[in-house]
Specification:
alpha+beta, 2 domains, seven-stranded mixed β-sheet, seven-stranded antiparallel β-sheet, 5 helices, about 35% strand, binds flavin mononucleotide
């Protein structure tokens, strides 16, 4: 079926909430399949909006590589402006402009999962769009030593996920990066933000963090 025929069909139908799948991912899957079937050009082309350090929004087209319950994945370059913006502010929005079908699909959230290419090797940054917003915490509320760090309970398991690192902050100078998962602090295991807070109470002058990054593990000392 071609796009104009489908567009005609969709325009004649109303969109009722009760007809939508309760699982947004399943609904996306249905609509994405329809976009592919309609033969529109690049159904996976989406506009990605990010925000820079001065709160200026930016948009550009990227191509959807895969999607699952963890989020929407596209590939980009580690050095790109969008990667830099998402690293310091994970608020983002995606828009699939399926206007040929009389449809647009917008996904807004606080995380984007990116696969970035660094020296030709793909690295995963775990930031997602469109999944329920989790409770994020400014880590400086846990200790001033972590000023500039935004964290949340790791949605993929144990530990605390670094969601964002403000440029030129104490956290940025420590070497922490968005996508890191803090799994230990001051030699105590970190399961979540609550246990990180408890571990940080052990010392007010320095913190020893154990961090999982790209499948490996490293220690970071912050003074
Ligand atoms: C059809 C189309 C598809 C694109 N797909 C991607 C993509 O998947 N990843 C990407 O990094 N850039 C892609 N680009 C280029 C981006 O739109 C953008 O120009 C570039 O990544 C630099 O953006 P930035 O300076 O905001 O980081 C695409 C451009 C077009 C026109």
């Amino acid at each position: 079926m071609d796009a104009s025929e489908l567009r005609h069909q969709y325009m004649e139908q109303s969109l009722y909430q009760k007809e939508l799948d309760a699982n947004p991912l399943k609904q996306f899957e249905t609509w994405y399949a329809e976009a592919i079937e309609s033969n529109i050009h690049e159904p996976g082309a989406m506009s990605l909006a990010t925000v820079d350090a001065d709160d200026q929004p930016w948009q550009r087209i990227v191509l959807l590589k895969l999607f699952d319950e963890k989020g929407f994945v596209f590939f980009t370059n580690y050095e790109s402006r969008k990667a830099e913006q998402i690293t310091s502010n994970s608020q983002a929005s995606l828009l699939f402009p399926w206007h040929a079908l009389g449809r647009q699909l917008s996904i807004t959230g606080d995380k984007v999962r990116l696969t970035i290419l660094r020296n030709g090797d793909p690295l995963q940054l775990t930031v997602k769009v469109g999944v329920a917003r989790s409770q994020q915490v400014q880590a400086e509320k846990l200790t001033p030593l972590l000023q500039g760090l935004r964290v949340e309970n790791n949605p993929d398991g144990e530990g605390v996920l670094v969601v964002a690192v403000a440029p030129n902050s104490a956290a940025a100078f420590s070497g922490l990066r968005a996508g890191d998962v803090i799994v230990g602090a001051n030699k105590r295991k970190v399961y979540d933000v609550k246990s990180l807070k408890a571990a940080l109470l052990q010392s007010s002058t320095s913190v020893l963090l154990r961090v999982d990054r790209n499948g490996g593990s490293l220690y970071i000392v912050i003074r």
